[in-house]
Amino acid sequence: MALPKSNTSVQLQITALKAVVGPDCEILTNSAEANSQEYAKRWTDIGRETPAAIVLPRTEEDVQKVVQWAVKSSIPFVVKSGGGSEWSTIGDDGLVIDLTHYSAIQVDAKARVVTIRGGVTQKEAAVRLAEEGLFTGEEHNRNGAPGSLTNDTDL
Length: 155
Ligand SMILES: Cc1cc2nc3c(=O)[nH]c(=O)nc-3n(C[C@H](O)[C@H](O)[C@H](O)COP(=O)(O)OP(=O)(O)OC[C@H]3O[C@@H](n4cnc5c(N)ncnc54)[C@H](O)[C@@H]3O)c2cc1C
Prior knowledge:
Elements: H1 7-17, E1 26-28, H2 34-40, E2 53-56, H3 60-72, E3 77-80, E4 95-98, E5 105-108, E6 113-116, H4 122-131, H5 145-151
Parallel strand pairs: 2-4, 3-4
Antiparallel strand pairs: 1-2, 5-6
Flavin-adenine dinucleotide is lined by residues 43, 78-85, 88, 99, 118, 140, 143-144, 146-148, 150-154.
């Protein structure tokens, strides 16, 4: 079994990540900064760990690059959509990929198909669908719609 990497070696590797992603993909590495603390917030702080970095991609291309880079570098990560789960946290050996800025909804009402990006909340999806006379059974305002699709036992 591989030993966990030290925080310092992970931080050094994250410096390399900056060269991989586009200039508008923020990488927050100082957990003491207000911006970092804001993005670290979750629905509950129970068991919440502090990651080596919070990465905020804005494009599909950057999401792919971050994931590919993390896999290649053997750095564990969790995805944050709405931040509603209690278990989706990671310590200073890993990354949070925060999808707040990767957020858009496309509705094809005729085909009854909705396409959502990773950062869309249930409320945003519900409001957009209502504009088309459609609805979703999900109603937990701030929970991520994709996070709920992958984890919610109601669906
Ligand atoms: C007030 C409240 C009420 C709830 N009620 C219920 C309930 O009635 N029934 C029930 O089953 N659960 C319930 N939950 C649990 C909640 O539905 C799940 O924790 C859900 O995963 C939250 O989604 P999130 O995106 O907000 O969470 P996050 O913590 O952001 O993400 C949770 C996990 O989902 C995955 N994920 C997130 N985004 C993506 C993505 N874009 N692509 C792929 N995977 C992704 C990741 O594995 C991530 O670790 C409730 C939670 C809250 C806060």
